[in-house]
Amino acid sequence: MKIGFFELEGWEKKLLKKERISIPQPRSTFLLVQCQKCENEQIIYSMTNNNILCKICDAIIAEKTGGKAKIHGAFIRRLD
Ligand SMILES: [Zn+2]
Questions:
Q1: N or C: which end of the chain has fewer CB within 10 A?
Q2: Ligand 1 centroid, distance to 23 Cα (angstroms)
Q3: What is the Å distance from ligand 1's center to 53 Cα?
Q4: 76 C-alpha to center of ligand 1: Å?
């Protein structure tokens, strides 16, 4: 029982550690995202300081979060 607990703790710590590392050292990539409104496919940068709008209909495709962009459209694939 105790071992199980420790394993879970270690697993959770690993997850937290991974998340912490990904913030100061973000792997910036380009993403192909589809607008949910007009289905326009657009390439966006995964790290953005601005909201990214669809070039066709001005809907927000990606929202700035201070780190990795929050994607509002449909994520299609990474371009790296
Ligand atoms: Zn659109």
A1: N
A2: 29
A3: 8
A4: 15
- The span from the CA of 56 to the CA of 34, in Å, is 11
Amino acid sitting at position 61: I
- Tokens standing for residue 11: 């697993």
Residue pointed to by tokens 């966006």: 44
Q: How far is the CA of 47 from the centre of ligand 1 (A)?
A: 20
Q: Does residue 44 contact residue 31 with C-beta atoms inside 8 Å?
A: yes
For the chain, what are the domain ranges? Answer: 25-79
- Span from the CA of 73 to the centroid of ligand 1 (angstroms): 9
CATH number of 25-79: 2.20.25.100
